[in-house]
Every structure is written in C-alpha cells, then in structure tokens.
Amino acid sequence: MFARSAFRIAQPLKHNARRYATEGASSGGSNTLLYGGLGAAVLGGGGYYYFSQSPSAASKILPPPAEHKDDSDAQNKGKPLNSVFKGGDQGFVSLLLENVEEINHNTKKLRFALPEKDDVSGLHVASALLTMYKGPDMEKPVLRPYTPTSDEEDQGHLDLIVKKYPNGPMSTHMHNMNPGQRLNFKGPLPKYPWSENKHDHIALIAGGTGITPMYQLCRAIFKNPSDRTKVTLVFGNVSEEDILLKHEFQALENEYPQRFKAFYVLNTPPDGWAQGKGHITKELLKTVLPEPKEENIKVFVCGPPGLYKAISGLKPKPQDQGELEGYLKEMGYSKEQVYKF
C-alpha cells in the first residue's frame, strides 16, 4: 500500500507470533485526545514558532520550478544528485501534487513531484518539512510541519501521509487538493540527529500520525546493514484502520524478529483483537520498554497533546524539550534518555 523502498516485503505476522510480553491492561474512556487529535495544539504551535522566528519565511517563495526533465540515463549517469531543500534562507519551494491515494476514512497519501526526476529531497534523519498555505480569506498563512514517509534517497518525489482533523486548516486544504495543484514547502527542519549504532536500544511511543518520525528512524536503522540498534514500538490508535504503516512494521517484524517488536493499543478494538486495549498504560510500558538502568538507551515520544501529557510531559516550544513528566518519569527514566518529537 505504501512505498517500500527501504524494506523487503514480507507476509503479515499472526497475532500470536508477535507477543513476547503481556499486553497492556484494558482501560476505559476515549483515546481521541491521546491518539486521534494531533491538531493545532501541537502542529500549530510548531508552525507559529517557526514563522515567528523567521519573519521573512512566508514572503520568500521560490518561483515554481519547471516540470521533470526527461533526461536519458546516459546523461544523468555519474551526475551528483541535487538536494531540493537546503535549509537556511532558501525560502519556500513550490511542489506539484502528482498523485493522491486513499488510505482510510480520514487519511490520504500525497505524492509531490520534485523539480527533476533525479532530485532528492535533501532531508536527513531525523528532520521534517514545513508546509505553508494561505487561503483567499485568510489574514495569515497556515504553517504546519510534516515528516515525509518516503525514503530520503528516493529520487523525483516525496510522500506525505496526512490525516484530516476537524477544524484543521492545513490538513483540510491538503485533503481537498487534486493532482496538478501545488503546495509550498521549506526545510529541512532538524530534529534528532541519528547515526548508526548511536544507541543500543530505542523505544518509540507514538499516537496517530505521530508515527511518521518513528518510521523515518526505523527506515534509517534497518536499511543500514551496519546498524544493529534494537527497536521497540508502542503505537496507540482509536481503531485498527487507524494504524498507519502497519504493513511496513509487520515486514520489519518478519525480517528482524530479534531486533524489532511492535505493540499496538486500540481504544475500540475489533472482535478477537489480541493486543492492547484502551490507553497506553504505565503497566504496558514497564513490560515492553528497555529498563531505564540499561546503558545507552533512548525513548522517543510523538503524538497529540494527551499522549505527551500522559507519557512524557508536554514541550513548551518546538525547540524546547521541557521537563520530563508522566509515566516515563515515574518509571525512573532521566530527561537525557527521552526525546520528544
């Protein structure tokens, strides 16, 4: 269903093949705030902060590039790849929407064409892009960061997985876009710098579309044969159809069973669901995460405000990690062991 350039495709695992620890305790209540609402409170804050720190960012837009040039392979052989996004004061780049794919009831995969068919995005792991849109009745442009799900080495395009949120101006605009229209991008926005074997074991705790930077990390780790990092994923959602990139993670579990484990938690699971139910609980995290006393571990958190508040505490600003709170602090992790996307 999604681009799989980084991973070899494997058959999905059966439920009982993936369980190496007890599942999380069932919990009542709704997970909408925890898993379903990564909206203005998080993404809007990131966009506003970036814009306020870069007053000329919205006004500096590069002219739309020409469409793909159909150069022959012979002409391009040995040619250095051009990175479209160079950071600094480059300004926004206008990209053409090439294709739209329906993922589920509120999520689409959008493929944007890079200016040349052999261009690469210029993103690194981990980093994101800032999108900008200004409607005809808007006083100010809307700015939202997104982490592409395409590989950083993919040529000619980049892919975004976009969930439409109620009253979300950017996600609504992107869901209304048709192939042939354009959107403005700027970046890369640097996040956590990754290098092979930087940590012995990392844990990824995500909700909703907070999975995209986690997937970016996983791609970098498992496509590199020299990287031996172990990865544990805990992913919370409202329903099974909301589990984004599940096929890709299942392929990782099949190919690297000793290094990658995924645990899914659903607020409204289907009949026969064999994994976690309700919220991501401290009991589940105690069971599946590496111990805080283990050396050289890192825990990454990404999701809507409710998830941050429960798991790690909120970020005051996009560039400020803030204090460690929530379950991870109660479990004995240090601030240095946790990174909030």
Describe the structure.
The chain has 341 residues and is α/β, with parallel strands linked by helices. The longest helix has 14 residues, at 40-53. The model is unreliable at 1-32 and 37-59 (pLDDT under 50). It has a 6-stranded antiparallel sheet with strand order 4-3-6-1-2-5, with helices on both faces. It has 2 domains: 15-37 and 192-340, 3-Layer(aba) Sandwich (Rossmann fold), CATH 3.40.50.80; 43-190, Elongation Factor Tu (Ef-tu), domain 3. The protein has helices at residues 32-36, 40-53, 73-76, 169-176, 211-222, 246-255, 282-288, 305-311, 326-330, and strands at residues 93-104, 107-113, 127-133, 142-146, 157-163, 182-190, 201-207, 230-237, 260-266, 276-277, 297-302, 338-340. It contains 9 helices and 12 strands. It is globular and about 50 Å long.
What does the secondary structure layout of this molecule look like, with pairings?
Elements: H1 32-36, H2 40-53, H3 73-76, E1 93-104, E2 107-113, E3 127-133, E4 142-146, E5 157-163, H4 169-176, E6 182-190, E7 201-207, H5 211-222, E8 230-237, H6 246-255, E9 260-266, E10 276-277, H7 282-288, E11 297-302, H8 305-311, H9 326-330, E12 338-340
Parallel strand pairs: 7-8, 7-11, 8-9, 9-10, 11-12
Antiparallel strand pairs: 1-2, 1-6, 2-5, 3-4, 3-6
